[in-house]
């Protein structure tokens, strides 16, 4: 796929996003689908007990759980999301992800554009 804006995934084919990343023991597996100054789209697969520690982002982050259940902490508040549920984690607010069980998610981050 020459000049594809969305990469690492088949175009013009119906797929399951969850099937595009594999849970591996003791790991957080990620697969970047798009990355530029405006947006980032990444699939993640978390093994049970794995986490991404607290951090923040300059953009709004939208997570959608694809399979299993994920625990998200945003600005000190815990949220538990099941498959097909979505949460927006606002820009510049600390957030973390924890896998109480294996789960998969899609992360879309929309970054601010220069507004001068």
From TrEMBL:
<dbReference type="InterPro" id="IPR013096">
    <property type="entry name" value="Cupin_2"/>
</dbReference>
<dbReference type="InterPro" id="IPR014710">
    <property type="entry name" value="RmlC-like_jellyroll"/>
</dbReference>
<dbReference type="Pfam" id="PF07883">
    <property type="entry name" value="Cupin_2"/>
</dbReference>
<feature type="domain" description="Cupin type-2">
    <location>
        <begin position="43"/>
        <end position="111"/>
    </location>
</feature>
<dbReference type="InterPro" id="IPR011051">
    <property type="entry name" value="RmlC_Cupin_sf"/>
</dbReference>
<protein>
    <submittedName>
        <fullName>Cupin domain-containing protein</fullName>
    </submittedName>
</protein>
């Amino acid at each position: 796929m020459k000049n594809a804006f969305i990469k690492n995934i088949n175009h013009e084919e119906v797929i399951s996003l969850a099937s595009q990343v594999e849970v591996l023991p003791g790991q957080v597996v990620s697969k970047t689908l798009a990355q530029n100054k405006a947006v980032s789209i990444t699939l993640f697969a978390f093994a049970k007990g794995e986490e991404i520690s607290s951090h923040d982002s300059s953009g709004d982050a939208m997570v959608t759980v694809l399979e299993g259940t994920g625990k998200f902490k945003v600005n000190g508040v815990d949220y538990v999301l099941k498959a097909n549920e979505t949460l927006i984690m606002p820009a510049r607010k600390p957030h973390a992800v924890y896998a109480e069980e294996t789960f998969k998610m899609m992360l879309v981050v929309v970054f601010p554009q220069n507004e001068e």
